[in-house]
Design a protein that fits this description.
Layout lengths: L4 E12 L2 E13 L4 E6 L5 H8 L7 E6 L2 E2 L5 H8 L2 E4 L11 H10 L6 H14 L15 H13 L5 E5 L7 H18 L2 E5 L12 E5 L2 E2 L3 H8 L5 H7 L3 E6 L4 E3 L7 E7 L2 E5 L7 E6 L4 E2 L1 H5 L7 E4 L5 E7 H10 L1 H21 L9 H16 L3 H19 L1
Parallel strand pairs: 3-8, 3-9, 6-7, 7-8
Antiparallel strand pairs: 1-2, 1-4, 4-5, 9-10, 11-18, 12-17, 13-16, 13-18, 14-15, 14-17
The structure holds adenosine-5'-triphosphate and magnesium ion.
Amino acid sequence: MNPVICIKELNHYYQEGGRKKQILFGVNLEIHTKEVVILTGASGSGKTTLLTLIGCLRSVQEGSLKVLDYELNGASEIERMKLRQRIGYVFQHFNLLDFMTVLQNVMLSLELQKDFTPGDAKRKSTEILQAVGMGKHLNAYPRDLSGGQKQRVAIARALVHRPPLILADEPTSALDRQTGREVVELMTALAKEQGSAVLIVTHDSRIFDITNRIVRMEDGQLDLDYQGRLSVALPTLSDNQLTEVIPQIKMLTFQPGEIVFRQGDVADKFYIVMEGEVEIILEDPDSEPKLLKTLGANSHFGEVGLLHQAKRTATVRAANGTTIKVIAFDRTAFQNMMLNSEMTSALLNYEAMKIEQREAKNRPNVYQQLPLANQELQILEDYCRQTSRTKIDVLSELVNQLSNQLKDNE
Ligand SMILES: Nc1ncnc2c1ncn2[C@@H]1O[C@H](COP(=O)(O)OP(=O)(O)OP(=O)(O)O)[C@@H](O)[C@H]1O
Ligand SMILES: [Mg+2]
């Protein structure tokens, strides 16, 4: 079966002060029947722009956008209007008509369709309003309803004509936590029953677990499928664990040759390479830096610093030639993941131990870098710190031992 939404290399521009400003950059996305997809990302990243393009509310400028097998690039206003009737919309502010009752608001959706008599429309609308728990409020006006109730009506209105595609823009943001969740659960349950695909734009990480497909928009670019990519990079994470991790991670970009972190830096993140290659380099003040390894897509790095040492044991930089993209977990996100997934924790700890042993062999002896007198002092200081003893204590023991040796020799 063809996808409900199929987007290829979609670009979009707005005019701003007489200048053309690009908002969407080469977006690719496919959504299939019965799929529930969450689209998230920073404010201003272009989510609503993409949703309104899919929803035929603005015209496509560049690239291909097929909705229900219909190419929207080049489509006329009339063609777009016809397609709009096969899509259900749910908005942040409900967009109910205040001068109509709950029932009339929902019926309106059906009256726009040609196959319904007014009697049918009333019956269908009443049924779906009952299904969303609004059966007792058919004749109420929107102004008399709570936010959650309004959104239930909006959902009934969006679904009553059984559209194969439902688009929702921030459906929970005007609602409290509990209500927001209930409303979205209701919407996705009904959509599944009807066999519709659902695309929800949201910042609300509390509803991320309603689906296992989350896509992110960053600066007008639709990111790689995080879920899919993470499950390849960290196969020990379950679907639930993946969904928990996703809101906590960030995508970072580094230019060719740019340093991700330096040997000796405080370790604060764990990374997974998504695109491009990174080089792991051992620095040694007395000789040339040594390239230990190159890592490509789906490899991870940074765990040694977080697990074993407080500091980075090597430098990592983007390889020359490509821009790299990495997923970064901050310390808390990393620790949460390790707590939630014993398998991941075991695996990363094992790998970190191996790497650490290997790197320790390569690491220049720190004492050799110091002038002779300072070397001894440094060794003494390190020893005192490790054994939590004072220098006087250690030195006097040393003096005793030496004098005993001397006595023995005499
Ligand atoms: N009609 C318009 N004309 C010019 N610029 C616009 C227009 N609509 C949106 N923009 C700009 O396009 C960018 C993307 O906006 P969009 O509304 O798609 O973001 P968003 O991801 O939905 O953000 P939010 O999470 O805040 O809703 C923003 O920089 C916005 O200022
Ligand atoms: Mg928006």
